[in-house]
Amino acid sequence: MGMDRWGWTPYVPVAERRRKAQREIEKRRKKGEGISPVVIQGRAIASTFWGKSWCENLERYSDYANRLPRGRTYVRNGSVVDLCIERGLIRAMVSGSSLYRVEVTIAPVAQSRWKSICFDCAGAIDSLVELLQGRFSKGVMERICRKSEGLFPAPAEIKFACSCPDGAYMCKHVAATLYGVGARLDAKPELLFRMRGMDEGELIAKAGKAMPLTAAAPTAANILDGDLGAIFGLDLDAGAIAPLPVPAKKAAAKSVVKKAAKKARKPAAKKRLKLPR
Asked: From CA 246, how far away is CA 46, in angstroms rounded?
């Protein structure tokens, strides 16, 4: 599609962009190509911790302020035909006046920052499930989302390329792609770690290693002094627990000791004196 006399491509109505995007999706699927469009239900682009945090991180940087609103409109209208997230790279196809290809390069998290995140989160994230579901304390959330020091990239760590003629630093197609990432993280939060060149399981492992060894491990005596039923989740009946069998030699020795002790406890028998008749 050509440009007008001011160098801008003609405006394409939303309905037409949607039809164009849908035609492209169907065409590629018929060819057997793997395609993953971004589908937004309702007005909210993201609804989970990871998705919302990604979008909020974009919006906190003034570098993106002028272009983000158009990107939100595009992603809500279903214009992101395909979105693929790889290690350090986001690739997308966005429907506008034409179908444009977008590439966003994202730098990996610096090792020093990664170690700092792991250390600060030590002992506060118990499992991979808890991590991916975003179910942890406010302190951990704030640390992971910390501006320029958390897991989310700063503008200096992001580079864009789009096949559209818009010469802006961030065009609306790139903005739509970045918001599409937020929507994708709702379903697959592990993609954030892949994108930043990190393993999500490593955060759990490193956080555990970084944990200060201040609490002494419970001793066997301390554990056994408690309620065994409560510890192991069992309904124990004291009367139903049989004693362990005692070896024969130990049983015999024990019997001898018992008899000796019993004899020692008995009062000495009084001797009867024989008086002369």
From this structure: 66
